[in-house]
Amino acid sequence: MERVGRVFVALKLAEWERRIIDSVLGGSAEVVYMRPGSYEGIEGAVAAIAFRLPDEALARAPSLRFVQVPAAGVDQLDVKALAERGIRVASAKGCNARAVAEHAFALLLALAKRVVEQNDEVKRGAWRGYTEESFLADLEGSTLAVVGYGSIGREVARLAKAFGMRVLAIRKSPRPDELADFVGGLDDLPRVLSEADFVVIALPLTEETRGLIGERELRAMKKGSFLINVGRGAVVDEHALLKALREGWIAGAGLDVWWRYPPEEGWPSPLGVHKLPNVIATPHKAGWTRRAREACLRFSAENVLRFLRGEEPLNLVGPDQGY
């Protein structure tokens, strides 16, 4: 089979991961893998699989026309600037939806059942008494709000239904869904938050969603409710969340996504949200399972192949939408 172009893979991959990409693209394209710290080989590439591409890499790739991100979020790329250069961007949204939803529920259950808190007590030699103050939260019969009802949000709702929870969902373009008891738009957000015992944020980071969950929204939540964020850190206002957790507007939070990442100074929260006793913190690993990794890499390679064949790629990101 004649090869139809060069594909540059700007990822650090193990051999088994390379085999996935090679099995899809090897017969149709020249696949060049990035060496540590070097973008040598991107010259002549018409497509790339990457999370980010610095200006130095783009300057060496005048033939580049398509970038496939092997994950749901594309916020590490300037999609508008790439569009101006004639480069289209696609995400792999949905490839790790189940894994992220499971992690959201792990955080939710840990908060509801005080798992971390009780584990620490038992290891210190303490034994919590059977008092009303030590009651754990029930999931059955409680209300879950899913803010960002896409692939991840629907998987969260699917799990919630297995626990007998009522599901209220918020999405930009609301439409009825069999897994949710209610699907509304952003205008419904204050009411939905006020009814929820648990709130799961599964939104991408865009100009519209940045800081969407601020002081007004956190004050709208029940005093004993919990916030779980598996979308993007900056969707939630850091100062407002710190205040809400310290002053008891909400009972606690489970956070897998943050405002800063290594090697940035002050990671993951310059204000120290991650250090609060009513916060369970994980290092952006919700979608990091072997099955999800395989699915994301395979989808990415197959979508690049669509582009190389002249077909319309899936999950194209609108320059003005950002997802």
Summary?
The chain is built from 10 helices and 12 strands.
Low-pLDDT runs: none
Whole-angstrom Rg: 21 Å
Assign an overall shape: elongated
CATH class of the largest domain: Alpha Beta
| Number of H/I helices | 10
Strand count, sense and barrel status of the largest sheet are: 7 strands, parallel
Measure the end-to-end span. Answer: 34 Å
Tell me the CATH architecture of the largest domain. Answer: 3-Layer(aba) Sandwich
Oligomerization category of the chains in this entry: single chain
Provide the domain count: 2
Name of the CATH homologous superfamily of the largest domain: NAD(P)-binding Rossmann-like Domain
Strand order of the largest sheet: 8-7-6-9-10-11-12
Helix content: 25-40%
Q: In the CATH scheme, what's the topology name of the largest domain? A: Rossmann fold
Strand content: 15-25%
Strand tally is 12
Task: Describe what you observe in this structure.
- The protein has 323 residues and is of the alpha/beta class.
- It folds into two domains: 6-95 and 290-308, NAD(P)-binding Rossmann-like Domain (Rossmann fold, 3-Layer(aba) Sandwich); 97-281, Rossmann fold (3-Layer(aba) Sandwich).
- The chain is built from ten helices and twelve strands.
- The protein has helices spanning 15-25, 55-59, 79-84, 97-112, 115-123, 151-162, 189-195, 215-220, 238-247, 290-308; strands at 6-10, 30-33, 45-50, 66-68, 88-90, 143-147, 166-170, 182-184, 198-201, 226-229, 252-255, 279-281.
- It has a seven-stranded parallel sheet with strand order 8-7-6-9-10-11-12, with helices on both faces.
- Strand 1, helix 1 and strand 2 form a beta-alpha-beta unit.
- The longest helix is centred in the C-terminal third of the chain and has 19 residues, at 290-308.
- The chain is elongated and about 70 Å long.
- The two termini are 34 Å apart.
- The model has no long low-confidence stretch (mean pLDDT 96).
